[in-house]
Amino acid sequence: MILSCRDIHKSFGGIRAIDGCTFTVEKKRITAIIGPNGSGKTTMFNVISKLIKPDSGTIDFNGRDVTGLKDYELARLGISRTFQDVKLFQNLTIREHLQIAMSDSNEKLLSSIIKGKNRDSQNIQEVMDLVGLDKTFDTYATDLSYGQRKLLDLAIAIAKPHSLLMLDEPVAGVNPRLRSSIKEILRELNSRGESILLIEHDMNFVMDLVDHIFVMDAGRVIAEGAPQEIQNNPCVLEAYLGGSEEESECWK
Amino acid sequence: MIFSAYQTHIFILIFIYIILVVSLNLALGYTGLLNLGHVAFFGIGAYTSALLALEGLTYIAAMIAAGLFASVFGYLLVIATDRLRGDYLAMATLGFSFVVYSLLLNLRDVTRGAMGIPGIPKPTILDFTIRTNDQYLIFVLLVCAISVFIMYRIVNSPFGKLLEATRDNAVCLRVLGKNTLSLKYKAMMISAFFAGISGSLYAHYITFIDPTSFYISELILVLTIVIVGGLGSIKGSIVATALIIYIPEVLRMLDLPSSVLGPARQAIYAVILITILMIRPKGLFGKVDLE
């Protein structure tokens, strides 16, 4: 087990975004969280990466209780994530993005001034080759297309030292060719022993790629299992196609 | 003597302002901290250095103390405004400028209030007292070169790239394991330090300071220079300082009465700023958009 969330609650005013969410992510597996829009998947990602403080519940990462940590402290322990809307540093180059990702702490001011620019091109080239981003290192993030930005975002998450990779909709808005190449990248990472947790709406992508699925609806996990089990689960069909909470067995 | 006494005076002011402007650009342009309290650091530096030198401290020690004391205020300002962003941060830091101005005006036992501090000694370095303006020009050029070189190294180092990343997307930087609050502290303290140094150079050059030297009009001038030169460009700040300090001096040749000269100078700053914002919104050499 690499990540365990127990009974997480989070409300925004009167809206219960997360309502007793509990799940466990195993090491060296690709795990997906799926669910209809507004089911709390991204909120849960933000809670795990400490961008949002939960009202209650505990989170263990690599056997350690990380509930009280700050976002950057948790990131240093080895969680790397991407965002649904690609977040980059618009005035920095590809090289600078990856250099920032690869160093695992704040740069020391004095040594940074004395040493000056840092040029570890070999590691950068490896990550660029892995994600298949064919641009010069000195290209600015603003000069990249959406698909290339998505790949750079993925490259940053991979380059950052981590033991769990969390990807929020890695193939949202990308063309089919790029989608299959991202699938191959994730397979390759998994074959190297990486643990991956992702959110995705594209069912073909999820069913073909992942080992285990959690289905969320209304802020809690309503089903879990292997892709084949989930495809035939009545609760999942109900969550996606509609049904009454009171009558449903899934909510008991 | 290479330059006329008047030109020497203008060059000294330009070099003092280059330190002040580049240090503001470090916080505003490179780190994205919309700090309107910068002129307060300039004032704190000037008063600290002047008062310590009058108490008998050597000039270099007084100048470094001026930088450090301004840095402490930079740290306090970040603590006080940690949760504010954008316009709210601008308002709070502008408030800080007014608070410091008020303190300089009203802490009469220390600052002599509106009467100001006269007779600030010219710097003495290793038994050599800088007496003429030509000597002061060389000294100020040296301090300016060292200060700008250090700030240039900072912004081009991996640490400097973290400052830029903080400006572009602090959330993204935090999930990469970087403590953005600590980066903001450091950026503001470095920025305040050099503003304090420039304040010290100013005080010991003019030899008289009063609170009006550090009022909002100074802030507008410095901010105008940063924007005209371009956010996130040291080269832009240097060129714009030279231009904006020098251009209004042409007015003197027109032999205008002093009651017209002041407002005309402000009008020229306004025209330059508006023209630049219309033609080149990123400034002469800037790479960051004004938000």
Question: What fraction of residues of chain A sit in β-strands?
Answer: 15-25%
Tell me the helix content of chain A.
25-40%
Q: What characteristic shape of chain B results from the CA principal axes? A: globular
Oligomeric description of these chains? heterodimer
Work out the helix count of chain A. Answer: 10
**Strand numbers in spatial order across the main sheet of chain A:** 6-7-8-3-9-10
**Which protein chains make the most extensive interface, counting residues with beta carbons within 8 Å of the other chain's beta carbons?**
A-B, 35 and 31 residues
Pick out the low-confidence regions of chain B.
none
What letter string, H or E per element, gives the SSE order of chain A? EEEHEEHEHHHHEHEHEEHH
Structural class of chain B: mainly alpha
Please summarize the sheet with the most strands of chain B.
Answer: 2 strands, antiparallel
| Individual helix count of chain B | 12
What is the CATH superfamily classification of the largest domain in chain A?
P-loop containing nucleotide triphosphate hydrolases
User: Rg of chain A, please?
Assistant: 19 Å
Total domain units of chain A:
2
CATH topology of the largest domain in chain A: Rossmann fold
Mean pLDDT of chain A: 88
| Order of the strands making up the biggest sheet of chain B | 1-2
Please state roughly what percent of the residues of chain B sit in beta strands, choosing from under 5%, 5-15%, 15-25%, 25-35%, 35-45% or over 45%.
under 5%
Mean pLDDT of chain B: 91
Describe the structure in your own words.
- The complex is a heterodimer of chains A (252) and B (291).
- Chain A contains 10 helices and 10 strands.
- With 252 residues, chain A is α/β, with parallel strands linked by helices.
- Chain A has 2 domains: 3-78 and 162-251, 3-Layer(aba) Sandwich (Rossmann fold); 92-161, no CATH class.
- In chain A, the strands form 2 sheets. In chain A, strands 6-7-8-3-9-10 form a 6-stranded mixed beta sheet, sandwiched between helices. A 4-stranded antiparallel beta sheet of chain A has the order 2-1-4-5, with helices on one face.
- In chain A, α3 packs parallel to α6 (146-159) and α5 (121-131) crosses α6 (146-159).
- Chain B has one domain (5-215).
- Chain B has 291 residues and is an all-alpha fold.
- In chain B, a hairpin with a 2-residue loop joins β1 (124-125) and β2.
- Chain A binds chain B through residues 49, 51, 71-72, 75-76, 79-81, 83, 87-92, 96, 99-101, 103-109, 112-113, 115-118, 156, 160, and chain B through 150, 153-154, 156-162, 164-165, 167-169, 171-180, 182-183, 186, 232, 287-288.
